[in-house]
Write a structure and sequence with these properties.
The protein is α/β, with parallel strands linked by helices and 318 residues long. It has one domain: Alpha-Beta Barrel (TIM Barrel). 48% of the residues lie in helices and 10% in strands. It is built from 13 helices and eight strands. It has an eight-stranded parallel sheet. The two termini are 26 Å apart. Bound molecules: glyceraldehyde-3-phosphate (G3H). The site of glyceraldehyde-3-phosphate has 13 residues, from strand 8.
Length: 318
């Protein structure tokens, strides 16, 4: 990952001046979604780039050591070797960016990756994921424990109650404490945009999270009714851009929740390229949080290489 965002003093004046032009955001979103996507070899290359940006995720009540182990092995070998070979990409060390699990499964993931001699980081959701409705003490302890167990990235959820009631100062101080608890681990801050009510709140929460030192801001837990959408992403990436212009600190962006198709991943990459530029098209500044996207990407790459769609048994690990 790139240099950390050290954060800045809370600037409440900046937060209170925020206004978002709702119709303009929707128009921009429609435009981005209507653009023609790259095709053929370019598309295959973009899909491989998308793979390297995936936080390969399992966040289920029935997660076990064995399905976490399987997830880690898939993260190490995300695309079948023969397909990569046909594209002259078999020696490029393509893996996903991270694996993302619940705190109780961190040790399983760390152990599997270590045994496989892989340096892929383990990311853990924390702070009472997904609702964040536990005491601050418990949420902080959860972060510390995940770091102690070997997580190198922590995906925290914000306290939506504070955001919805305009308690930005309190939210800032909570996030600062999470950042301290993360230590060397990189912190991604989940805004749960589907529960924030308005684009203005999304922009304000993005700013406060970055001021408090978030290394990434992330749209959603994947458990809200509305998760990652293009309009909300435009609001967040523009907050990232404004924060960068004002402070010189680059903050990453992670859309998550409901991202399932290769085409989705191409749209997300297009959005990043158009709104933030090529510098944000790499895993240290862009992640796709997804539990089932990789299967469709591998399927599309199979089609690009062979001209046929794979039968289920041909991509068994997907
Ligand atoms: O953080 C990642 C999300 O929980 C993944 O959501 P998903 O299962 O809809 O891909």
């Amino acid at each position: 990952m790139s240099a950390r965002n050290p954060g800045i003093e809370l600037d409440l004046g900046w937060v209170s001046r925020v206004r978002v032009n709702h119709p303009a955001v929707l128009r921009r979103a429609q435009k981005i979604q209507s653009w023609k996507l790259v095709k053929k070899g370019w598309q295959a290359a973009w899909l491989l780039r998308a793979v390297t940006c995936i936080d390969l995720t399992t966040l289920s009540g029935d997660d076990t050591p064995s399905n976490v182990q399987r997830l880690c092995l898939k993260a190490i070998h995300p695309i079948r070797d023969d397909l990569l070979k046909s594209m002259d990409m078999d020696d490029k060390g393509i893996t996903t960016a991270a694996v993302c699990v619940y705190p109780a499964r961190v040790t399983d993931a760390v152990k599997t990756l270590k045994t496989a001699k892989s340096n892929i980081p383990v990311a853990s959701v924390a702070t009472g994921f997904p609702a964040g409705q536990t005491s601050l003490k418990t949420r902080l302890e959860e972060v510390r424990q995940a770091v102690e167990d070997g997580a190198r990235e922590i995906d925290i959820v914000i306290n939506r109650t504070l955001a919805l009631t305009g308690q930005w100062e309190a939210l800032y101080h909570e996030i600062c404490q999470f950042k301290k608890a993360c230590g060397e681990a990189h912190m991604k801050t989940i805004l749960a945009v589907g529960e924030l009510g308005s684009f203005t709140n999304v922009y304000k929460a993005s700013l406060v999270a970055m001021m408090a030192g978030s290394d990434f801001i992330k749209t959603s837990t994947g458990k809200e009714t509305v998760n990652a959408t293009i309009p909300v992403a435009i609001v967040m990436v523009r907050a990232i851009r404004d924060y960068f212009w004002r402070t010189g600190h680059k903050v990453g962006f992670k859309p998550a929740g409901g991202i399932r198709t290769a085409k989705d991943s191409l749209i997300w990459l297009t959005l990043m390229k158009e709104e933030l530029g090529d510098g944000w098209l790499k895993p240290d500044l862009f992640r796709l949080g997804a539990s089932s996207l990789l299967a469709d990407i591998e399927r599309q790459i199979y089609h690009y290489v062979t001209g046929k769609y794979a039968a289920y048994h041909e991509l068994p690990m997907a």
